[in-house]
Design goal:
It contains 20 helices and two strands. By secondary structure, the protein is mainly alpha-helical. It is globular. This is MalT-like TPR region domain-containing protein.
């Protein structure tokens, strides 16, 4: 019987040869890959099959560089072959880590094309790999919570976040050396984010205690903490954390080991996009409209580069940009109705908003926060135009019926008020208004 590593090498060779015939081998491994935390530095730091990691690197780079259905299909085929080549008989650390890494990569590919149920199935399978590295399982749980939040499954997200904390606690109790400070911060932060989404500021606060001086507060954990600070109006400190996240991810500082492993909407490029978008919103809330426009435009360019120009997450950033122009117009008593309308119309199109004539019901959950925000903002621009007031009122009624946030009304989310105890923040990772 051939050693598994040799068989895997032959699979990789055959796959590369086949894709070469399709003209797909001119792949440059990009440092800007949305999945780079699945493979950057992991070969040296994770006890896994190196050939499997090379195949993961190849597959994800292929999907990223081509941005087509065909390249994504080819990438998924590579990963499926990689997974099937792992021995089902071996129950050791190397095998479980390798399988876990492949499943993380598969879930990222699936989520990028909107196949959330399939992506979550891959992430759930990782929890059965009991010998896999703690950070592999934490990354899977974090991504699972993130996808459920994006889909509007808030109760499920909260339960999963609790399970992530339980997982960490059991491992630390069994072997304190395995429980890394980063994994602990990430587990607490994802629970804090789940509470933030549901409007529970007081419930979220304990999960962020000690984060200011916590060395493990990087990446997703630091971004979620920044959003908590932002929502509670600690603007100065929130800005520091947003900038910290942007610098760390952009420069890959502190993101070169397995502890920073992430997938799906929690992967590094999504974190960088969300931090940039949040910083732009913060500049709006601080009245720095020049900085806000520059930062949100940077986020828009990043979203288009990452997902393509027609992806819903581009619509999320466009919504934030439209709101910025709307706030600026009110503050400076200027007019930018044409700009606002153009941005809102484009955002609503990309967000795939249901027709206005379709009655809102509670089964509509995914993306409804941002759709309601975009339509609510658009309605305001229409209502101040006498000849379009009827159209605006109809859109306003639809947006208010679609709004899901438990702690803020839609009208509160659309205005900047010094009297409010809570400031609305759009999280571009999960496409939700916090």
């Amino acid at each position: 019987m051939l050693p598994s590593s040799l068989k895997l090498s032959r699979v990789a060779t055959a796959t590369v040869a086949r894709t070469a015939r399709l003209g797909l081998t001119s792949i440059k491994l990009s440092s800007s890959s949305p999945y780079r935390l699945i493979h950057d530095g992991i070969i040296k730091s994770l006890n896994a099959n190196p050939v499997a990691l090379q195949m993961i690197d190849y597959a994800l780079s292929l999907a990223k560089s081509q941005k087509s259905d065909e390249s994504q299909g080819q990438a998924m085929l590579v990963l499926e072959q990689c997974l099937s080549s792992q021995s089902s008989e071996n129950q050791d650390v190397v095998t479980h880590n390798s399988k876990g890494m492949v499943l993380l990569a598969m879930s990222s590919l699936l989520s990028a094309r909107g196949s959330y149920d399939d992506a979550m199935e891959k992430l759930q399978n990782i929890q059965d790999l009991i010998h896999s590295h703690l950070d592999v399982r934490v990354a899977a749980m974090e991504a699972l919570v993130g996808l459920n939040l994006e889909m509007g499954n808030d109760d499920t997200s909260s339960v999963l976040a609790d399970k992530c904390l339980e997982l960490l606690g059991k491992v630390e109790l069994k072997n304190s050396d395995e429980g890394s400070e980063v994994a602990s911060a990430r587990a607490k932060a994802i629970k804090g984010l789940a509470e933030l989404v549901q409007g529970n500021l007081e419930s979220a606060e304990p999960f962020f205690q000690g984060f200011l001086d916590n060395k493990g507060c990087i990446g997703n954990a630091a971004l979620s903490y920044g959003e908590f600070l932002h929502a509670t109006r600690n603007f100065s400190l929130a800005k520091d954390f947003y900038q910290k996240v942007i610098q760390e991810v952009a420069n890959k500082k502190d993101f070169t080991d397995v502890r920073a492993l992430a997938a799906c909407n929690m992967a590094s490029e999504e974190v960088l996009l969300a931090a940039t978008c949040a910083l732009g919103q913060l500049e709006v809330h601080m009245g720095n409209f020049g900085n806000a426009e520059e930062t949100l435009t940077s986020a828009l360019n990043r979203a288009e580069q990452l997902f393509g120009s027609r992806h819903p997450k581009v619509g999320v950033v466009l919504t934030c940009l439209a709101l910025m122009f709307q706030h600026k117009s009110k503050q400076e008593h200027s007019s930018s109705l044409l700009i606002q309308e153009g941005l809102y119309r484009r955002a609503i199109e990309l967000l795939k908003a249901p027709p206005l004539d379709l009655e809102v019901n509670r089964t509509m959950r995914s993306g409804m926060d941002i759709i309601a925000l975009a339509r609510g903002g658009y309605a305001e621009t229409l209502c101040i135009q006498e000849n379009r007031k009827g159209e605006g009122e109809k859109m306003k009624r639809w947006a208010e019926a679609a709004w899901r946030n438990r702690s803020l009304s839609l009208s509160e989310a659309l205005k900047i008020s010094d009297s409010s105890n809570r400031m609305p923040v759009v999280d571009a990772r999960i496409c939700r208004a916090l």
